[in-house]
């Protein structure tokens, strides 16, 4: 059905107001949050949806969490149709096998009404520090999804009846280890959704609900047109890419992730046929996350950043993965560390596109969500520190890779050391530094990883982690050199205890936990690096990873 015509000036004003409102929601969510993983690391996302559940505008926070949000919304709408919602209702979903990602990312959708008419939804997702399960914050040994925390199937609740001391809030409180932080983060999500609703209602009072809804439709169509135009500029053809995870956390066999990317006119088809089958450990990637990874790669490579990242920009991109594979597992496989496989999907698509548009891609980076979780049960209950660490970006045709940042799909900030000192008395961060020589050489060098050293100040501290690229280094492009691999170990009483990339480990007082994240790969031959770049490397004291 063709959208109602909106005056071009009104369309521009409404479109930009919706984008600004989504950004304001993101700020509200972060500033209202209780846990450091949301308040400091910004592991969250916010968006405005239209009345059908399509993303219209989103805050620039976590690409992974919002790319396929329609996939998360639709199962909720199937349980309770949107037209049956009333003021105060909300949808909730974190079920990986019904459109969710992993359990810790809980999606809340709050309807927005104007004069009784459903106009859209405020939507937020936050990574919750603890949702129960078999271990505080992170359970690397989980053998099924039920051991990873509470599952909220697609459902409708009411804020006044079921939250704010109601039965749903009491149920959640009873099943988590850090209720003040977790409930506080849920309330931050509700506050951000309320902020979005307020801004949309203001637009409806000014322009009318019908005009605002038509402007939403037009904004989706605009993004689709721009996206299709960008795809048409890339050469038609079938392109292949492959990367691999080190292992499944139990054995030492690499797990391949293969992508077939076909550009056909103004559409892109991404098929992960040939990818390894699902495994018994938590690195399986739910289908919604696979869609997000592929979509983020295609969008970042083929289009300009000024194209709004909404449901319209997704329409020309078609993603498929075999059911029962690492990228589309069958229930009840555990999925907590799904970002590891999602990143290899991102890398495989990027390598495929390198054959089509070599000047627009980047070499592989560390591209790994390395999660560090330290927890302790003290006299006042649990304290749980969880942080998402990154490493070095891959280099591109236009420049060097970034040093010591989170990887492209995550985009989290680091937790400031001062915040750690205030929150967690059972450890102290003794070093946070660039890891010299970890970036791969090239015409443009890969970014450097970093070093974190944690001094343990109490007994019975549990360390849990998942990571990758401990054995298989990120590959350079067009003659660029690989980045350095990662490493984790504990210095204990003069001895060094090497840790695996995916495990838990009991720490003792005075242990020194050392995390070395990996670097990014280079782009182009190292002997083509310009004199100006070499001089800057020397001035900055940068030593590049030597080619083997």
How is this fold's topology laid out?
Blueprint: H1 8-32, H2 36-39, E1 44-50, E2 55-58, H3 63-66, H4 69-79, E3 89-93, E4 105-114, E5 117-127, E6 155-158, H5 159-162, H6 167-174, H7 179-207, H8 209-232, E7 237-245, E8 255-264, E9 267-271, H9 287-302, H10 311-314, E10 317-320, H11 338-356, E11 370-378, E12 381-389, H12 417-423, E13 427-434, E14 450-456, E15 461-466, E16 487-492, E17 495-499, E18 502-507, E19 512-516, H13 531-540
Parallel strand pairs: 9-10
Antiparallel strand pairs: 1-2, 1-5, 3-4, 3-6, 4-5, 7-8, 8-9, 11-12, 11-15, 13-14, 14-19, 15-18, 16-17, 16-19
Helix pairs in contact: 1-7, 1-8, 6-7, 7-8, 9-11
Tell me about this structure.
By secondary structure, the protein is of the alpha+beta class. The protein has two domains: 8-226, no CATH class; 365-548, no CATH class. 30% of the residues lie in helices and 24% in strands. The chain has helices at residues 8-32, 36-39, 63-66, 69-79, 159-162, 167-174, 179-207, 209-232, 287-302, 311-314, 338-356, 417-423, 531-540, and strands spanning 44-50, 55-58, 89-93, 105-114, 117-127, 155-158, 237-245, 255-264, 267-271, 317-320, 370-378, 381-389, 427-434, 450-456, 461-466, 487-492, 495-499, 502-507, 512-516. The protein has a six-stranded antiparallel beta sheet, sandwiched between helices. α1 (8-32) packs across α8 (209-232), α6 runs antiparallel to α7 and α9 runs parallel beside α11. It is globular. The mean pLDDT is 95.
């Amino acid at each position: 059905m063709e959208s109602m015509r909106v005056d071009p000036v009104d369309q521009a004003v409404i479109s930009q107001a919706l984008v600004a409102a989504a950004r304001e929601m993101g700020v509200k969510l972060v500033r209202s949050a209780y846990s450091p993983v949301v308040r400091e690391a910004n592991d969250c996302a916010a968006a405005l949806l239209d009345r059908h559940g399509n993303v219209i505008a989103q805050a620039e926070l976590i690409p992974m969490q919002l790319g396929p949000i329609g996939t998360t919304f639709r199962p909720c709408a199937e349980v309770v149709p949107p037209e049956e919602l009333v003021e105060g209702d909300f949808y909730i979903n974190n079920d990986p096998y019904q459109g969710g990602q992993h359990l810790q990312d809980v999606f809340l959708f709050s309807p927005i009404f104007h004069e009784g008419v459903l106009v859209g939804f405020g939507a937020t997702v936050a990574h919750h520090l603890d949702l129960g399960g078999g271990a505080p914050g992170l359970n690397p040994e989980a053998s099924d999804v039920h051991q990873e925390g509470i599952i909220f199937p697609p459902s409708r609740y009411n804020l006044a009846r079921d939250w704010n001391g109601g039965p749903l809030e009491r149920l959640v409180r009873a099943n988590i280890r850090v209720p003040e932080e977790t409930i506080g983060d849920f309330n931050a999500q509700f506050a951000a959704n309320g902020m979005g609703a307020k801004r949309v209602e203001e637009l409806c009072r000014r322009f009318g609900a019908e005009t605002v809804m038509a402007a939403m439709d037009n904004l989706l169509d605009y993004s689709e047109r721009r996206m299709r135009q960008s795809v048409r500029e890339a050469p038609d053809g079938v392109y292949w890419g492959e990367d691999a995870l080190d292992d499944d956390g139990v054995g030492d066999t690499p797990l391949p992730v293969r992508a077939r990317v076909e550009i056909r006119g103004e559409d892109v088809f991404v098929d992960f046929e040939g990818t390894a089958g699902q495994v018994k450990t938590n690195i399986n990637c739910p289908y919604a996350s696979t869609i997000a990874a592929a979509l983020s790669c295609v969008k970042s490579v083929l289009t300009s950043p000024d194209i709004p990242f909404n449901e319209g920009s997704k329409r020309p991109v078609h993603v498929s993965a075999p059911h029962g594979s690492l990228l589309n597992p069958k229930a009840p496989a555990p999925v907590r560390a799904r970002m590891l496989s999602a990143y290899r999907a991102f890398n495989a698509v990027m390598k495929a596109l390198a054959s089509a548009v070599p000047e627009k891609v980047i070499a592989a980076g560390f591209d790994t969500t390395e999660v560090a979780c330290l927890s302790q049960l003290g006299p006042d209950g649990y304290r749980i520190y969880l942080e998402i660490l990154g490493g070095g970006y891959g280099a591109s045709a236009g420049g060097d890779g970034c040093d010591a940042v989170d990887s492209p799909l995550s985009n989290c900030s680091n937790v400031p050391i001062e915040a750690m000192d205030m929150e967690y008395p059972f450890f102290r961060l003794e070093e946070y530094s660039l890891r010299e020589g970890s970036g791969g050489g090239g015409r443009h060098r890969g970014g450097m990883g970093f070093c974190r050293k944690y001094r343990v100040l109490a007994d019975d501290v549990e360390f849990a982690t998942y990571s990758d690229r401990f054995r298989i280094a990120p590959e350079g492009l067009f003659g660029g050199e690989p980045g350095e691999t990662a490493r984790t170990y504990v210095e204990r009483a003069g001895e060094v205890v090497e840790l695996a990339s995916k495990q838990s480990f009991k720490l003792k007082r005075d242990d020194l936990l050392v995390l070395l994240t990996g670097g990014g790969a280079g782009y182009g031959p190292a002997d083509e690096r310009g004199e100006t770049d070499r001089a800057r490397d020397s001035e900055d004291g940068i030593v590049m990873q030597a080619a083997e």
